[in-house]
Amino acid sequence: MISVIVAEDLPEIRNSLVRLLQQQDDIILLSAFPNAEEASAEIILAQPDIVIMDINMPGMNGIECIRKIKDDCRSTQFMIFTIYENDEKIFDALAAGASGYLLKKTPPEKIIDAIKELYNGGSPMSSQIARKVIGHFKETKQQGHDDLTNKENEVLLLLSKGFLYKEIAAQLSITVGTVTQHIHRIYEKLHVANRTEAINKVFGRK
Predict the structure, then answer these.
(1) What pLDDT shows up at residue 138?
(2) N or C: which end of the chain has fewer CB within 10 A?
(3) Domains of the chain
């Protein structure tokens, strides 16, 4: 059985998800909440397999919630369920620790498929979102992003989101010293002197 918690503020969407999940033989819905504050406490307590998380909720948003509790829920996988298709929301969510990203227009059977895929180690995304992710890395590759290792790419992405060294270390399960070493190598490979120059060179930020 795959255990699931839902965090969604709109009653009609939350109730639809509840009905859908309750119809599944291999999924158990533990609870559904209208906001991230209530959901976060139960997620930490229950340690579900999957959390379906809206982004725009009253109070703390879904991305902030994931970032706040991710380290306390090592075995829980987070899947964003939202209307937002813009690059900033996508990469903020992935950097925070989400492993899946579905749009709310996703058909019910695809939602169930995505839950199972996520549970089995995949990273399900709506096709529009996957294209944006691929497009982003194609663009950054042309700017010299391919000079960096996968781990260095991950470090730089989190650095660009404003994460502190200790937060990057926690996200990637490495030490602060290792983060520092990665950042020094990033600067050397990109021929830059600081964080701002590295982010501008790779992500084209002004």
Answers:
(1) 52
(2) C
(3) 2-134 (3.40.50.2300), 143-203 (1.10.10.10)
